[in-house]
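Retro notes
What went well: the complex prediction finally ran end to end.
Inputs used:
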Amino acid sequence: MIAVVLDDADVRAYLAATGEPPEHWTEAAPPLAVGALVLAALTERMPLPEGTVHISQEFEFLRAVAPGEPLEAQLRVAQRSERGGAVVLALDLELHAAAGAAVLRGRATVVAPTPTAAVEAGATTSEPPA
Amino acid sequence: MSGPPEVAPVRRLIDQARVVAYAHASRDLNPMHTDAAVAAATDFGRPVAHGMLVLALVSEAMTATFGARWAEAGALKVRWRAPATQPVTVTASAEPRGVEGGVAAYNVRCEDELGTVLLTGTASVRLEP
């Protein structure tokens, strides 16, 4: 599990960068801000090769996340295939509140130009590849 | 049965300053988005906006209609179709598909000012009981 916290400054920075009006997000974080930071945290732990392209994304938002709320994220390589010399990876991610309830689930699909040990099927963020 | 609520499109300029700000806000500092020299060596040839930044406009459109409910009961499934090379004016739209089982469903897309489709997919929101 990877600890993730989205604080007020993170929310303000996200809203300023995207241009989204802040009126709906005074007590909760925009779900895409949560999703983006989770992806960043997880891919920092499981680096992908240079040139990797994010081709599709699924998110299921299960409840609002409050700024400052401690969260835990996990990433799992759900599928791995090869296409034209590139590796296609489906990465399942899940974000939990510290109390255990899931607050967000998703799947990111990426195309990586070369295989690496870090992206072999079965690797998870809680069990780093040897 | 009434259909899903209408979702107003969101149109926004994505320029280099916005991409740099988003890179820091999202902590996605991949230089292919911000460094012309690095981007020149990629298949895109030029810096491209983060796909998640383009997708953020869809989320903003859904939020404008559903408010915080979007964060509690929303879902997205999208595929990026073309790179958004900045500066680009992106329009995110959501076309109502229907309401089934208490879930409002939409087809979503993002296009640039030339009509190039950048992203397509679906969005849904479980309506209040």
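What we learned: The longest strand of chain B covers residues 88-100.
What to try next: split runs per interface for comparison.
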